[in-house]
Design a protein that fits this description.
single chain, 542 residues, alpha/beta, Hemocyanin, N-terminal domain, Rossmann fold, 7-stranded mixed beta sheet, 25 helices, 11% strand, binds nicotinamide-adenine-dinucleotide, binds (2S)-2-hydroxybutanedioic acid, binds magnesium ion
Length: 542
């Protein structure tokens, strides 16, 4: 619906700005409120692209695009759609990380919901105040583990805003039906607490009892107000991430992107990599650096895949080695979570080793797959990578930590240290790597390949749960779209311009699975495909 007069002009979801025609201006009471010239959407895209290009650095570009989004969403998405590869790193990883760190400094206008602990007891009212009535997808964070940048308090809001932009750009979710949320439960980031500009509740993070009660009140309010919404958890610190997911996943439509989305994209990328390497996953030794919720989530899915390929649970666990800040996870270590314990190696297997750091593990194990979800920049050293490259023809090496400053290795180095044999995918975007006069694109193994498609799937299918099998189908469908399957010299994951189309494919397969799993109303495959097509929103003036 288009509002009249000034209100219509400033409603970012419906405004056309200078593209309102003479007739519309007359009809909507806009005469005199706009400069005389009438532009088309394409004119506006060309103009905003020019303005975007004039911004000095990436954060300035981010601020420009965020302001455009607050002003005119149709134009924002049309501009993005024409420049996905260039603009993804600006609205999303890595620049969004800096935008979170500087959130209070660069704040212009509110967006979404700021759910603050001092407002506890009134969260139903907070939810009722939401800017958009009908919501398909909520992305919520508590700002405690923003990428690999740690606790950003309320600044974490940049992440739900960025992720939801991609739900729309890639997954076709109507921007009028999205809701970014930050749970403001304090921050332990002293720099933020001491910053006079800080816009959050100036308080240390609350204790666990209060925390879980508050999360519960929030979830209850969401379920009362928006019973069908997809609630996506994002960038929660590991000690809270899995308990929250386990508490709600059987009761409502919800998933944790860092645990499940990351696992699905990684499995998808490994599918192509294993094929090129000529060795199925079940025959590989896998080493993971990092035992946080992301790392353990990925390994859970890898183990399930190994079992699907014929191994027993125990045989799969034998092939998986996890190293954290204290060394290899072994069964004599104390303080491991249940999830970590499932991947602890028997201590006797390593009792004659000199040490259990990453270098020791790579030295002792015939490692074929090396993954990093550790935030430990540069941890895949030349020595480690060269040793691994001596053991296998096509080493599979994924430095997946974000943002760029936290990557375990640079793809250029991996290429050099393995004479171009490494099969690489990174969490953050990197420039193509040159070899033999040819530039090769580096696959970005980031959950952005999964979550927009998952949102589209559950919205189109009216699903009520996100099952493990739906995530596996997403991984498989993505894996089948790997350009490396057709040509081993190609990247492990599809190019950005193909991603919206592939998201449709993934969404359709996932929605079919939701019906099979009995968590969505009965529909034929054709009906599913039609529902997905109908659900997709496109940026045009209406
Ligand atoms: N590519 C993606 O799509 C994607 C998705 C999710 C998370 N991530 C990234 O993964 C990283 C980890 O996320 P998390 O939530 O699991 O974090 P986390 O902080 O809970 O876990 C980090 C783990 O790494 C270990 N670690 C830290 N420093 C280390 C070091 N120097 N040597 C060895 N181990 C070390 C820690 O002991 C811990 O087990 C973040 O950078 C995040 O941005 C990427
Ligand atoms: O946000 C990203 O780029 C991926 C992932 O969710 C992360 O936390 O690093
Ligand atoms: Mg995340």
């Amino acid at each position: 619906m288009v509002h009249k007069g000034q209100n219509g002009l400033f409603d970012a979801l419906t405004t056309k700005g200078t593209a309102f025609t003479r007739e519309e201006r007359a009809e909507l009471g806009l005469l005199g409120l706009l400069p005389y010239a009438v532009k088309t959407l394409d004119d506006q895209v060309a103009h905003t692209y020019q303005e975007f290009s004039r911004r000095r650095d990436d954060l300035d570009k981010h601020i420009y695009l965020r302001a455009l989004q607050d002003r005119n969403e149709t134009l924002f998405y049309r501009l993005l759609a024409g420049h996905v590869e260039e603009m993804l790193p600006i609205v999303y990883t890595p620049t969004v990380g800096e935008a979170c760190e500087r959130f209070s400094d660069i704040y212009r206008r509110p967006r979404g919901l700021f759910v603050a602990y001092p407002d506890r007891g009134r969260l139903r009212e907070v939810l009722r105040n939401r800017p958009n009535r009908d919501v398909d997808v909520i992305v919520v964070t508590d700002g405690q583990r923003i990428l690999g940048l740690g606790d950003q308090g309320i600044g974490g809001m940049g992440i739900p805003i960025g992720k939801l932009s991609l739900y729309t750009l890639i997954g076709g979710i109507d921007p009028a039906r999205t809701l970014p949320v930050v749970l403001d439960v304090g921050t332990d980031n002293v720099e933020r607490l001491e910053d006079p500009n800080y816009l959050g509740w100036r308080h240390r993070r609350i204790g666990d009892d209060e925390y879980y009660a508050f999360v519960d009140e929030f979830v209850t309010a969401v379920r009362e107000e928006l019973p069908e919404v997809l609630l996506q958890w994002e960038d929660f610190a590991t000690p809270h991430a899995l308990p929250i997911l386990e508490r709600y996943r059987e009761e409502m439509l919800t998933f944790n992107d860092d645990i499940q989305g990351t696992a699905a994209v990684t499995l998808g990328a490994l599918q192509g990599a294993a094929r090129v390497a000529g060795r199925p996953l079940a025959e590989q030794q896998v080493v993971m650096l990092g035992a946080g919720s992301a790392g353990i989530g990925v390994l859970e899915m890898i183990r399930q895949e190994m079992v699907a390929q014929g191994l027993s649970d125990a045989e799969a666990a034998e092939r998986i080695w996890v190293v954290d800040i204290d060394g290899l996870l072994t069964d004599d270590r104390t303080g491991l979570s249940d999830g970590q314990r499932r991947f602890a190696q028997p201590a006797e297997r390593v009792e004659d080793w000199d040490g259990t750091g990453l270098a020791d593990v790579v030295h002792r194990v015939e490692v074929g797959v090396l993954l990093g979800l550790s935030t430990a920049a540069g941890a895949f050293t030349e020595e480690i990578v060269r040793e691994m490259a001596g053991k296998t023809d096509r080493p599979i090496i994924f430095p997946l930590s974000n943002p760029t400053s936290r990557a375990e290795a640079h793809p250029r180095e991996l290429d050099e240290w393995t004479d171009g044999r490494a099969l690489v995918a990174t969490g953050s975007p990197f420039a193509p790597v040159e070899r033999g006069g040819k530039a090769r694109r580096i696959a970005q193994c980031n959950n952005v390949y999964i979550f927009p498609a998952m949102g589209l799937a559950v919205t189109a299918a009216r699903a009520t749960r996100v099952t493990d099998e739906m995530m596996r189908v997403a991984a498989r469908t993505l894996g089948e779209a790997s350009p490396a399957l057709a040509d081993p010299a190609e990247p492990l994951l599809p190019a950005w311009e193909d991603v919206p189309e592939i998201a449709t494919r993934i969404a359709t397969a996932v929605a079919v699975q939701a019906v099979k799993d009995g968590v969505a109303p009965e529909m034929s495959e054709d009906e599913v495909a039609e529902a997905v097509r109908r659900t997709r929103w496109t940026p045009e003036y209406r």
